[in-house]
Specification:
The protein is α/β, with parallel strands linked by helices. The chain is built from 11 helices and 13 strands. The longest helix is centred in the N-terminal third of the chain and has 38 residues.
Length: 283
């Protein structure tokens, strides 16, 4: 009987030792994976190469604008990108992309991070990963000032005799396709051309983000940014990176928090006339 008990105890001890070893090796393996992931971060490549590649559309004021005269990028997110590069101790290289190819270009490794008024949404988050959000906004119509008593709601705009201009491939087109099914919709390849078409009467409405609508209304008193005090589909902008790089994501988020704390972002918002708390409709 004693021999049987000893045998049973030996088996139990053996199983216990095996389970303990398995748990230890599994934990060690997970730690190795985490360490490898951190060491393989894009951030290390950026610092080693001395340059961060920033993808930007260049057609969305006041966040990103490729000036045709100077051939240089301008805007809130362009200055933010320069700030990020400075904090990392590297140079910045801007890479032109488009709204229809933004995600494709990011995943093809044409740039390290996308910046330029990019709306945070679940579809993009599933394919890539966003930084913290910054600057709240929503969808609003840019119209002619003479029509501000006419276009006072989505229903008033969604009519067969109303022509809407929208740029392809982004959240503006998705919103128009979902909510403006009765109106006449014209897709304009260059987003920068649409405000001028509204002002000239070629189109009646531009559906865009409220901050861009306010920007163009400030530049041209023929235009009016309507419904900005209560925009449709409230959201935030974010900076877009490839998935599975926690170190790079953490660093970008840390930089954003520090720049907000130090007042750098507030200064940029003032420089580019961006006040997310304002209800001004820029008549």
């Amino acid at each position: 009987m004693k021999n049987s008990l000893k045998a049973v105890l030996a088996v139990i001890l053996a199983i216990s030792g095996f389970l303990t070893y398995s748990m230890f090796t599994s934990a060690a393996s997970e730690k190795d994976k985490t360490d490898a992931s951190l060491s393989d971060s894009r951030l290390d490549q950026i610092i080693d190469q001395g340059v961060i590649r920033v993808g930007t559309p260049g057609d969305y004021q006041p966040f990103t604008y490729l000036n045709p005269e100077t051939k240089q990028y301008e805007g809130y997110d362009i200055e933010a990108a320069k700030s990020l590069a400075k904090e990392l101790g590297v140079e910045v290289k801007f890479v032109e992309t488009t709204w229809p190819t933004l995600m494709e270009d990011l995943l093809a490794d044409k740039f390290d991070i996308a910046m330029g008024g990019i709306t945070r949404n679940m579809g993009r988050q599933i394919q890539a990963q966003f930084s913290h959000g910054y600057i709240p906004f929503g969808k609003s119509p840019l119209i002619r000032a003479e029509d501000k008593e006419k276009f006072t709601s989505l229903e008033a705009i969604n009519q067969p005799d109303v022509t809407i201009g929208v740029n392809p491939g982004g959240t503006n087109q998705k919103f128009v396709n979902a909510h403006m099914t009765n109106a006449n919709v014209i897709v304009v390849q260059n987003n920068l051309d649409i405000p001028g078409k509204v002002a000239s009467g070629e189109v009646d409405v531009m559906i865009t983000d409220s901050i861009e609508a306010i920007h163009y209304a400030r530049e041209n008193d023929v235009l009016y940014a309507a419904l900005t005090e209560d925009p449709w589909e409230p959201s935030q902008f974010g900076y877009l990176m490839q998935q599975d790089d926690q170190k790079f994501l953490n660093t970008v988020n840390f930089w954003m928090e520090e720049m907000e704390l130090k007042g750098v972002f507030e200064e940029l918002r003032n420089d580019f006339g961006i006040n997310p708390d304002s209800e001004e409709t820029a008549e």
